[in-house]
Amino acid sequence: MLDIAGKPLLDIRNLKIGATVYPPGERPRDVTLVHGVSLTVEKGKVLGLIGESGAGKSTIGLASMAYGRGGVRITGGEVFVNGRDILKGGTAGLRALRGREVTYVSQSAAASFNPAKRLMEQVIESCLTHGVMPKAEAEKRAVTLFRKLGLPNPETFGDRYPHQVSGGQLQRAMTAMALCPKPDLVVFDEPTTALDVTTQIDVLMAIKEAIRDTGVAALYITHDLAVVAQVSDDIMVLRNGKTVEWGTTDQIINAPREPYTQALVSVRSHEHPEKPPAAEPVLTVEAVTARYRSVPIDVLKNVSVEIAPGRTLAVVGESGSGKSTLARAITGLLPPTRGRIRFAGRQLSNDLAGRTKDDLREMQMIYQMADVAMNPRQTVGTIIGRPLEFYFGLRGAERDKRVQELLDQIEMGKGFADRYPAELSGGQKQRVCIARSLAAKPKLIICDEVTSALDPLVAEGILKLLLDLQAQENVAYLFITHDLATVRAIADSIAVMYKGEVVRYGPKSDVLAPPFDNYTDLLLSSVPEMRLGWLEEVIAHRKMESAGN
Amino acid sequence: MSRIPLSALIGLFLTGTFFFVAIFAQWLGPYGLNEIAGDVWEEPSRTFLLGTDTVGRDLLSRMIYGAQVTIFIATMATILSFVTGSILGFSAAVIGGWYDQVLSRLVDLFMSIPSLILALVILSVMQVSIPVLIIVMGLLDSTRVYRLARAVAVDIAVMDYVEAAKLRGEGTGWIIFREILPNALSPLVAELGLRFIFAVLFVSTLSFLGLGVQPPLADWGGIVKENKDGLVYGISAALLPAFAIAALAISVNLVADWVLNRTTSLKGGRGA
């Protein structure tokens, strides 16, 4: 190997990345995704790349392996790994580099493993292809890595198939795969984003320790500043393919210079003052039990909650805890097997077909993925106008006027009514969904993870809008989320769900105040905090493991 | 509509020509359909641009009249198959349960019998007329359209916006025609181009076998049948309808591709 003393391991200079887009029915055109970004990573150091979607962080990460995903091309600049410009190495040079000197951990391990092969075979594959070590030695190294990453039964873990382990374990197996051929640099592309908070910190800790013990350098890509603060030495903030700020983790977190970084750092600090509960609840869920057809397990067990008019009940829990099922039971999409639902002073039919038009009108729903919650072939005007037409019989100019009023209410203004959803940004789409539910003049809106698919600053805007609308319209929210920062920002009361049961329920101030039950403690302590050393503190005082682990 | 790609322009022109010829056959044909104007199998000449056929009728005139019959039957059969197939397919996907089971198994049953053989059996016991041909072809083809429509609609029916429409209390009609149909249009349009050509081939095959269009009417398959003996003597009359079918197939699909491109756009066909 070359003598590289004094030189950085990864040195990207003035990197430019572009792609050609092919809009249907239009001429193809070139777009620039990354406008001349430069960065360096020293041996054994971790650089965090952070930014919103479209900031170019993954694209830059993959460029360190000279790879462009889906037609993306590196159009300029230089990428030095171990002192060699890999963009000039040709295909043979790249083949020697990828999976040997630089390895990659992707966001969705579940989609990245071959489901037909055992984990061990896949974890040691690159060791064997590159002839790094013989098979027996590679397997031994894999077992050592499994142990280091805290996987259960490290000796036999590799004999399992990908579907036989949990998501968090699979993500760690992928980290083992990346570390196995003793690379110099690992690119982590949102490795914990798809995981529950409670699982996330285990994986985060495992990755952090593995990086420390193996002395590998890493690029850690994420949109969550609090997460990256735990693992990286330096942080680079990106926006629209340009560098906003680059500094040590300490400086970025505690003394951000750029306004954009300051906004990112302070985004989670919003707190909503709790309103006292009103007398008569608008929705009462009494001892509801529900199960899916052909699965003999109750997904909801004896759930009782209530919401007062103009108040927000946050339902929190990790995936599989039954939060979304509760929404489906309340809306009638999944009729409860036992229990009753009272709404606006009347008894609701458990089944959707048995509900009156007013029942349907007064209870609206907003979905997590605004993309698929709107018909892509309808204009915004039709999407918002349909409930007006359907429930109130508004037509023509009268309807258009009301649509415009609603658009004003969601702060979108003129000119949007003729647009199609594909012509809106992520935040605008969610706003249109809010307007559609508002058009029905509902008493209750069920919000199912409405901000989790959005970038933090956009999500904050949506939460603020929801709170303003609540003040104007006195509408109640059932707010389903896994993110406790969101809960703090919007809830009046909280129900914590775990494996289909409500384990803690009450006004926000009570639920978030000690003494905690074990699960609430785990959940609360798992929310990443934006300060150095937080991860170690949490791991030191945990009482229980998460369900998904 | 400002920029129509060249391929679509060619397709539009040729398809337009075919349909124009088909519609105005009565005025365009230089001779009558069954008028014996010359000798048997004359070479192409000034008087007979494509030569004459097995009994001395002008081949160009017969091709023109044949286009009318062929294209009319194929168009009607395709429309029938798409209307029945897609409405039944969409409703099966939306309603589900027993309705879906009964329809789908019935369609499986029909699809398990080769459609040409089934058509031959049905047509050999019935008085063959053009309406009967259209209905038999249309209904047999609708099983294929049903499969496609149902498969596409099942994927769309689980989207959140369809769930939102159900939660709003919308009826099956709105869900099928306003939520599902616009989103299922692209694969259906692609299929339409293909199905139309299959229908042309199907009616030609039936006529060639003697169970399709009956004399005195003639279609392209019938013309092939009448002139097939000439092939032995190196007379190309039987190949002309084949060329016509190929040209029609390509031009219709060029148009279908372009329509597909426009319907795929999620911005209503306007620029970004």
Task: Please provide a written account of the structure.
- The complex is a heterodimer of chains A (549) and B (272).
- With 549 residues, chain A is of the alpha/beta class.
- In chain A, a hairpin with a 7-residue loop joins β1 (10-21) and β2.
- Chain A has 23 helices and 20 strands.
- Chain A has 2 domains: 10-269, P-loop containing nucleotide triphosphate hydrolases (Rossmann fold, 3-Layer(aba) Sandwich), CATH 3.40.50.300; 283-513, Rossmann fold (3-Layer(aba) Sandwich).
- The longest helix of chain A is centred in the middle third of the chain and has 18 residues, at 197-214.
- In chain A, strands 6-7-8-3-9-10 form a 6-stranded mixed sheet, sandwiched between helices.
- In chain A, α16 packs parallel to α18, α17 (396-409) packs across α18 and α18 packs parallel to α19 (456-473).
- Chain B is an all-alpha fold and 272 residues long.
- Chain B has one domain (6-264): MetI-like fold, CATH 1.10.3720.
- Chain B contains 10 helices and no strands.
- Chain B has helices spanning 6-23, 25-28, 59-95, 97-112, 115-125, 130-157, 160-168, 172-208, 220-227, 239-264.
- Chain B is elongated.
- Classes of the chains: A alpha/beta (549), B mainly alpha (272).
- Chain A binds chain B through residues 23-26, 331, 333, 352, 355, 357, 360-361, 364-365, 367, 369, 372-379, 386-387, 390, 420-423, 436, 440, and chain B through 159-161, 163-164, 166-170, 178-179, 182-183, 261-262, 264-269, 271-272.
